[in-house]
Amino acid sequence: MSLYTWNSRTQFLDRLASYTGLELVGWVIKPGKWVQTRVSDSWDTYVYLVEVHKDNQVLKEEISRLRMELARLSEEAASVQRLERLLEFTPPNEWSRFGARVIAHGFGPLGTINSVIIDRGKLQGVLPNLPVVTPTGVMGRTFRTGLNFSSVLLLSDPNSRIPVISSETRVKGILAGQGYQKNLSLHYVHLNSDLKEGELLVTSGLAGIYPKGLPVARVKEIFRSDISLFLTVEAKPLVDMSDQEEVLILQKSENIKTQADVGVN
Fold first, then answer.
1. 13-27, 73-87, 119-133, 189-203: range with lowest mean pLDDT
2. How far apart (Å, rounded) are the C-alpha atoms in residues 93 and 111?
3. Whose CA, among 25, 31, 45, 207, lies 20 to 30 Å from 3?
4. Which 8-state DSSP code applies to residue 197?
5. Count H helices, E strands: the chain?
6. CA distance 31 to 249
7. Quick count: other Cβ atoms within 10 Å of Cβ 160?
8. Coil/strand/helix, residue 234
9. Helix (H) or strand (E) holding 81
């Protein structure tokens, strides 16, 4: 009775119970709240990481697409530059030009002949022994012609022969191939000629296949012999045969007229 009376006057026990209960509830709720917060944070982090992963995948796909697009545009730009150079080539008088693409190579240590195949044939007006050139210089001549495709005999083939003349000293000779990745050989140059190393060799037009004045090769080395009446001359071709993708075929205007007349008749 005394304790009840004292508590009713002081309310000490009520406050103690209230504080004790509050502390008890607090200590029970706080760990649960901590666990809830951790779980919530972990879930948010997981969701965030999933979204980041998805974004990364999208970005990777976009980067891959852009790389492919860049490669395509770079290839198109390079092709445009090559075609522009071809269009800048002006054929000699009484000669016309038309383009062709290289679709296969047939040279190398195991190649029977040093040649390439182009996507033009008889139906497109290609005849045997037509000059094949690039903006850099002569590449060869048409060899065998099909209906829609033709083979080109390259300068490097041992069967290739081109009459040439030096640009400065006007020394004449026959430029012959010596095989894959080898220099060309200039034949029949007299021992007392004034030919110099570094001179440009151009077509002389004597054989009737090539027009006069097309650049072919540059003199690399000259050797003199005590037992021969001719110099041994090595020349480097101006055209790299291995990396050509487009070429020009030259044709005399009179041949075009003849073909047209045959087609009419």
1. 13-27
2. 36
3. 25
4. T
5. 3, 12
6. 88
7. 20
8. strand
9. helix 12-88
Q: Which of 154, 148, 131 has the alpha carbon at shortest distance from 212?
A: 131
**pLDDT tens by residue, 34-59:** 656 666 666 666 666 767 777 777 78
Two tokens, residue 253 = 């205007």
Angle between helix 2-10 and 12-88 (nearest 10): 50
Q: What is the 8-class DSSP label of residue 49?
A: H
Which amino acid is it at 30? K
Of 116, 118, 142, 126, nearest in space to 210 by CA:
142
Q: Could you tell me which residues are beta bridge partners of residue 116? A: 105, 152
Match 């065998």 to its residue by tokens: 144
- Are the CB atoms for 133 and 214 separated by under 8 Å? yes
Residue pair 133/238 in contact (Cβ under 8 Å)? The answer is no
Distance CA 227, CA 245 (A): 44
Phi, psi for 18 (deg, rounded to 5) = -65, -50
Provide the β-strand partners of residue 202: 165, 215
Quick check: 60 pLDDT over 90?
Answer: no
Q: Is the dihedral of CA 183, 189, 194, 199 positive or negative?
A: negative
Place of tokens 């075009």: 256
Q: Are 175 and 195 in contact (CB under 8 A)?
A: no
- φ/ψ of 144, rounded to 5, equals -110, 140
Where b means 16+ CB within 10 Å and e means fewer, 79-91 reads eeeeeeebeeeeb
- φ, ψ of residue 145 in degrees (nearest 5): -125, 130
Q: What tokens does 14 get?
A: 């009520």
Name the residue among 100, 128, 89, 126 with its Cα closest to residue 215.
Answer: 89
Tokens of 118: 């182009």
Residue 80 pLDDT: 62
